[in-house]
Amino acid sequence: MGSAHLRDLLASDALPQICIEKFGTLGRGLIAFSKLRHCKLMRRARHFLLLIVVSVAIASGAWAFLRVKALKRQALRQSDYLSNTTTADADLWTRSMEKVKEARGEAEGAAVETPPELRHYSDRHWFLATQVAEVRKFNVQSCQDFVDLAAMIQRGELVSLPAVTDTYILYGVGAKAEDGVFSRYQDGHNIELYDEPELRDAYGRLESTHSKLETEISRLKTQTTALKKGDRAKQVELQKEITARQQELKANEDDKALLDQSYGQPETRQRLLSDYASLQALAKNFGGRSYNLNDSSDRQAIRVSLLSTLKPEALKILEEIAKSYHDKFDRPLPVSSLVRPEQYQHTLNRVNRNAVLIDTPPHTTGLAFDIDYRYMSGAEQNFLMTELARMKGEGRIEVIRERNANFHIFAFIDGRRPDDELITASLDEATLDKSDESKETNHATNSPATGPSATKTPAKVTPAKLRSHDTKSLAKVASKSRTAKKTKTNSNKNNRSTNSRAKNTTSKSKHQYRKR
After folding, report:
1. Which helix (H) or strand (E) holds 191?
2. Which of 48, 83, 244, 431 is the most exposed place for a label (fewest CB within 10 A)?
3. Same domain for 329 and 197
4. 339 and 219 housed in the same domain
């Protein structure tokens, strides 16, 4: 019997009786081997199948957990939006959300055509510089943190917007609002706000945590010393734990040092206590509701309410756009962002690359707002962009279409665009560092209107003129900006050179003195 034929018989898992008679013990052994091989293959198949089932179950569980968590966050945000509304308003909010998200018909599937007015200028900093120029023109107050924002509301500089109206809905405003203790934002640091009893509790928590960490580090070091020399793996593991606890200890000491620095001086201590008292006063009656600042859910809710505000001049623009959109499509305009303190900008920056971090971000003034177009059809987007381009042509707003599904709109207070000289003077302040410049490139980058003065002539400027208007002016502006920067750079180089020569001279004199 050939070897190939024997392999076929083995693979069939059923050798005929003749094999047993012919090969005797060898035949029976081959049959046993074949059955054993078959059993092993079946066990492997079952193990593989079990692994697939377990993996699918784990993935499904993880998806379900994340989905429930997302729905819970959405429900919490919805409850924050509707906390001050009546039952009728809550029903309106639900119906409005359904209209925003509902599927669009094929008739609305027009190609999106971004007009030049909603694209970047050739000098990409001109867009931000225009908004900074408006801030300079009217000396607009910006807000660093929620305490500043609350003060602006109390002074009547900002007005609260309802969560929903017939023409617009706040969709995503305050979506990243946190529930932690309120703090002052200074020099990139958060200084938590307390009253006297809470301040004592904060110091007590820091001291307790510090003591526990020191005890834990001491225990881990004792365990490391007691190990045998050959137990290298355990030593590495313990050293990692020690390093982690030491980092926590350092963070604890830094927090205490910041608290000492902030509350250690009578003047700053009194100012911080006063800031917290003013925030508590607002929380007792804000928008017809009382908030408990010792409750995390209330802290998050009041942050959402604070973020649902805007300057009257910007609100007028928003309402005009919303009415036009609603009249045309019978849908509420989804507004995704209003005022944002710089402190909140940094929170958003972790997830939103368009949260610009310059000295005066536009949203910190209350003059800027965003419209979400992610659910809009091509026809809806084109209609909105035509309206926005018209307003920009009239000199009433600055606007851009962002790639993160938002239109960014900035309202000019007197309905007139700042002049080019003031915009030019604001270029340095509007220039981002390299890390932020990469964020700014997330805006639409198709060929823009070619001149910074693209909308200089209100009402009469047409899109065709905008594409070719004042190219020389832009080149002149860019040249001025580069010359100023070059002069500044050369000045710095000369200063460094002078300082270097001075240091060399001093060093030489000291050397000669030592020789004497």
Report:
1. strand 189-192
2. 48
3. no
4. no
SS3 289: strand
Q: Are residues 368 and 460 in the same domain?
A: yes
Q: Which residues contact 454 (CB under 8 A, 6 or more apart)?
A: 116, 117, 121, 461, 466, 469, 470
Q: What is the average per-residue pLDDT within 116-127?
A: 94
**Do residues 384 and 422 share a domain?**
yes
> Within this chain, do residues 398 and 321 fall inside the same structural domain, yes or no?
yes
First to last CA, the chain: 109
Token pair in block for residue 462: 């047409």
* CA–CA separation, 146 and 193 (whole Å): 11
Do 283 and 154 belong together in one domain?
Answer: no
- Residues 350 and 427 both lie in one domain: yes
Average pLDDT score, the chain: 79
Average pLDDT, integer, range 83-90: 63
Task: Find the helix or strand (DSSP H, E) in which 408 lies.
Answer: strand 406-411
Residue showing tokens 């094999």: 19
What is residue 230's three-state secondary structure?
coil
Angle at 341 between CA 400 and CA 184, to 5 degrees: 160
| Assigned token pair, 55 | 């993996």
Range of the domain at 208: 186-288
